[in-house]
Amino acid sequence: MEPFKVSFLGPKASFSHQAAVEAFGASAQLTPCLSFADTFAAVQQGQSDYAIIPVENSSNGSVVQNLDLLADRNEIYGDVEVCAEHYLTVHHCFMVRKGVSSTYSSITKLYTHPQAWGQCEAFLSKNFKGVERQDVSSTSKAAEIVSKETTECSGAIASRFAAEYHGVDVLEENIEDRADNTTRFLILRNVHSERSARLTFEPTSTALKTLILFTVDHDSPGALADALSVFKDHGLNLTSINTRPSQRRAWQYVFFVECARVPTPQNQEAVTRVLQSLPQVTESCKYLGTWKDEF
Amino acid sequence: MEPFKVSFLGPKASFSHQAAVEAFGASAQLTPCLSFADTFAAVQQGQSDYAIIPVENSSNGSVVQNLDLLADRNEIYGDVEVCAEHYLTVHHCFMVRKGVSSTYSSITKLYTHPQAWGQCEAFLSKNFKGVERQDVSSTSKAAEIVSKETTECSGAIASRFAAEYHGVDVLEENIEDRADNTTRFLILRNVHSERSARLTFEPTSTALKTLILFTVDHDSPGALADALSVFKDHGLNLTSINTRPSQRRAWQYVFFVECARVPTPQNQEAVTRVLQSLPQVTESCKYLGTWKDEF
Fold first, then answer.
1. Which of the ends of chain A has fewer CB neighbours closer than 10 A, N or C?
2. Could you read off the pLDDT of A176-229 as tens digits, one per residue?
3. Are A85 and A109 part of one and the same domain?
4. Do B85 and B103 belong to one domain?
5. Start and end of every Prephenate dehydratase domain (chains A, B) (predicted)?
């Protein structure tokens, strides 16, 4: 069989790229996209077997652009479903151009993505107090910039993955403040695809997660509690709730409910039953997929 | 009595400033702050009677910086509580320097906050296709820039409030794509303040909203559903749920639950009872205030 085609948000050597390599291996055909919407479109249109998208970071919270794409308010990604998740531990390194004999004191300019400054505050204030900082659009871009520097005065903060991709020298690893900084990715497939993996719903010892979206009538008291009770009544544990504006009416929300169950012969139909019951207490609801809990 | 002191995120003529004027009137002493954290600190330290902060926009969703400040993970705003809410309808205008006889075709440069471009797409593509756009840090700043322009070729998108503050001419009003684009502000006070208003909990015909935060053990199945049931069991309707990373452990969340009740003699103690029951099913919980529903 041809290698799997996998879309991710570029540029190459981004954290999404690294997650794609970890999840699919180097033999997959990995394609950087210009936007998250393009990764969804690639799956919907069958150009990719899978897309891998970040949905939340353990420090920063939800990636709302991807929640909005999953909500699919314009109904253009109707065949996209979630089939797996992948956790990527975010480690930052300090790097300089290959072969440069830099000491920290010779560095006069630093490059990285704005979010990375905040994640490496202790390292930066210890070693680079007052040094000029240049924001760039991705940590991978920062590594690329120092790889092409003609002076010996520039340093970048990026992943080891980006350092190796761009061929720069890592002077220090794990410079992040929090060792447990982790991003959770979801893996998307097309429900009609015959190539991409389908989950089999036989009982396993691993918990299964399911993502269901719904909207409730804002003016109907108790509707949200009633909708959440449906999950509990059928033995599904809520593991995550997110909300986004419905963008149809002000103050109406789309709820993203993730629930989990350890499969047993008794609860095989639990998701089906939830989906049968929800329409009685919600305005709309939508099943977005079931996958193995990798937490 | 001296006028109330109210803190808001500046600059002057920002949407927060407009919300403060609408909520407190022009006689209040309104103080722009450099950050949302500064508005919280002003209330905590008693420099301001109130702060007014945006918490959600009907199109864009939550203002996560303010949710994080309400979560108060470092326990530095322990005396800050929510005492009211205010809804501000967001209208945009197109404006030029006072007295300039501009036609749209003579405009060669536009200024506004990045979010406003996206909110006025129809107007911009109809009238200013291909015209240079300059991002600025606030819509108020955009109005200020054109007020000082020496050429006649610049236009700004900002509120009528900002146009009047900076003395520029509005050429067109309500240029936003969605007429119902609204931001909800919360008003903060210090629980020890004797000047700022306290709610009286006598039954009224208006619904009361209450904000309660809690964390649950991620590994305890059903804990979230159990916590949410507590609200329902005591007759409180869930009107909003938000989550943010706890930033203590990865994948542990702070839940922000807003609930509402029309006060009756029977449910006067509902919030007290919820706060008595929640500790049995949560790791931690915190009451953040009760106020009149203005929706």
1. N
2. 988 888 999 999 999 999 888 754 445 556 889 999 999 988 777 778 888 998
3. no
4. no
5. 5-190
Residue A225 at interface with chain B, using a CB cutoff of 8 Å: yes
The two three-digit tokens of residue B63, written as one number: 């203002």
In this prediction, the answer to ipTM > 0.90 reads no
**Interchain contact, A224 vs B243, CB within 8 Å:** no
Express each pLDDT in A244-273 by its tens digit.
Answer: 998 888 888 999 999 999 888 888 899 999
Residue pairs spanning A and B at CB distance below 8 A? 86
The verdict on A26 touching B (C-beta cutoff 8 Å) is no
Written in H, E and C, the secondary structure of chain A is CCCCEEEEECCCCCHHHHHHHHHHCCCCEEEEECCHHHHHHHHHCCCCCEEEEEEEECCCEECHHHHHHHHCCCCCCCCEEEEEEEEEECCCEEEECCCCCCCHHHCCEEEECHHHHHHCHHHHHHHCCCCEEEECCCHHHHHHHHHCCCCCCEEEEECHHHHHHHCCEEEECCCCCCCCCEEEEEEEEECCCCCCCCCCCCCCCCCEEEEEEEECCCCCCCHHHHHHHHHHHCCCEEEEEEEEECCCCCCCEEEEEEEEECCCHHHCCHHHHHHHHHHHCCCEEEEEEEEECCC
Same domain, B36 and B77: yes
A238 reaches B (C-beta below 8 A): yes
